[in-house]
Amino acid sequence: MNTDQPSPGNLADLDRFYGVIPAGGVGTRLWPLSRAAAPKFLHDLTGSGSTLIRATYDRLAPLSGDKIMVVTGTVHRKAVLKQLPELQKSNLVLESEPKDSAAAIGLAAAILHRRDPAIIMGSFAADQVITPVGIFQDAVRQAVHTAAQGYIVTIGIQPTHPSTGFGYIHAGKPLGIVGAPDAHTVDEFVEKPSATVAAGYLAEGGYSWNAGMFVAPVDLMLKHLQANEPELFAGLTEIAEAWDTPRRVEVARRVWPTLPKIAIDYAVAEPAAAAGDVAMIPGTFGWDDVGDFAAIGRLNPASEDSKVTVMGEGARVYSENASGVVVSDTKRVIALIGIDDVVVVDTPDALLVTTKEHAQEVKKAVEHLRASGDTDVL
User: Fold this and answer.
1) What is the pLDDT of residue 304?
2) What is the pTM of this model?
3) Does the structure show a pLDDT above 90 at 277?
4) To the nearest 10°, the Cα dihedral for 78, 16, 264, 277?
5) β-sheet bridge partners, residue 155
6) What is the distance between the alpha carbons of residues 233 and 225, in angstroms, rounded to a whole number?
7) pLDDT tens-place string over residues 309-341
């Protein structure tokens, strides 16, 4: 544990905070709405009038001001800047190709460390739905105070059901940090469990979903990255050293394609937890990663006079004795009669029809289309 940090709960801790938003992934389970050129974080999936990345930025801004960095693909540059016009150009980090979360978050950490090694970064994915915002922000403040004491801090999500789709975090003893009364040590990260094991976790208590939210001093993040993934660390360091210079493009083009692909959980969080350097703040806010169309149904309740959730400007839907979700990007009339829990997604060049129960399997259709060469609709 570091001893040269500001005193516990000091407001100076929050002055060091820098938000990082990794905006990657295609969201294949939300095809054909979410595509490579327009992934789910660029869509309004909650009917709030705000896209997921815009909402993520707005949650962080009261904590970090304009100290927010976005890491996304080169192809999304214009769309991201259009949605976040206040984002400083120097804080838009573009990936020429996806390299998984360790490279994305690690590059942000390396660039920020070059600018100011005292920064505490907080990484929050661009495609999550969180309410109420105030409770989330309180958890982040606790995480920052905990990180200032020399920890990589994850914000665990209180499980609402025995999900097999998420990894779990097993909390240990309370840390007793002033300004972070809910901080606990982390005993271990657990991979996605079976349904039986997940039910056991909920019955036992002390387990949270791992939502990939990490708050940490950039120097500690890089220390563990160097120890566990030296090749990745070396490449990211080379790019970061050239980032704020005229050599940025040349170095990034040469080095980025050579970097290994690995998730931040494996590269940093799990080995750091084994070393006793990881803490957890329990997140008691509502959280959804909008992983499939069933999630859109949960987040957008149907009106009282209909059992069908309808999304899409100008959508034309008739339903009779039917329930489910319709997402329409066309003016085509969609009639549902005598069918329950249906999912219909209508776009100009692709139509998806499934059920809420099978919504997770949409990814298989995307894999088949890619394998068969039908990439024009992906």
Assistant:
1) 64
2) 0.90
3) yes
4) 180
5) 281
6) 6
7) 888 888 899 999 999 999 888 999 999 999 999
